[in-house]
User: Fold this.
Amino acid sequence: MEQLIRPYLDRPYEDIPEQILDLARATGRRVVAIGGGTGLSTLLLGLKEYTENITAIVTVTDDGGGSGILRREFGILPPGDIRNCIMALANTSTMMSQLLNYRFDSGSLEGQSFGNLFLLALNNICGSFAEAVADMNRILAVTGQVLPVCNQNVALQATFADGSRVVGETAITAAKKERDLDIRSVSLVPEQVTALPQAIQAIREAELIVLGPGSLYTSVIPNLLVGGVAEAIRTSPALKLYVLNVMTQEGETERYSAADHVQAILDHGGTVDACLYNTKEITAKLAARYMPEGSEPLMPLTEDFRRLRVRLFGGDMLSRNGQLARHDPLRLAYNVMLAAETFAHREGELGDYDRLLLRKG
Assistant:
């Protein structure tokens, strides 16, 4: 491999043959991305430009929207986050993507995604949600693999600052807004839930583990509560990178500092070596849009992270669509891989391939 890459190390990125770039992605880092919601699918969409060795581990506690309806009516694990992650990594035709992302706008299926129904049908055929997800991975020629964190029906429970408890993601968010109380901790109901063996294996073999971005208590932390996950992360030799959200989130993390986010992960058994954060300032117009929600930009304080013994890595990752304060997929993925290069450099020709892809920016 070294002989193949050597002639291109000093050439402009645009002059590098596609077969060399394909080889670089094929030998890319083994990355495990853990989370849920739009944050995880955003990361995956950009990450496949840098490596083909991706495992997405997705939470299964969602009980809202179309996923919640299918969960209540058919007993299936929530398909929405899984579908979004599979679509982010899929290598399929535009028409197939449009079909799976199609959302019905009338009748009894109003608001339901065809991709969710596709997973429901596969679940009924296969007899297992994990097998259905594996088949959807194969059908859509996914780069890497998408896995549910477990194969068991589980709900999320939050304990608030006053000691009260609420079960269900949707109910937790509603109660948080109504009572304006901080979430003290979250747990699973039932508590004894076992992680999918493939998820644990992927964590153990990873070179980079990415937590987030996404809702702290309903997308990131629930994965850590599944039996075996937190321990596998802790004992893995991989770099553990937490991607901080751009803003605090209404109904979950109002008044939280950047360090509070990391502390919550640590309090729930997680391990964080470094925290990646956005350095691009949002516009005054965008900030005003979030003001009624009490959401504010997150900017880490160095002394707080020194106390936590977590390294910081900042970069411009903000989406330029101007409508929402969210990460841009390519900027996010670039900074994730740049942080990995900075904190966990790979030697030899593998490192050469990593740096080759990073020249894309």
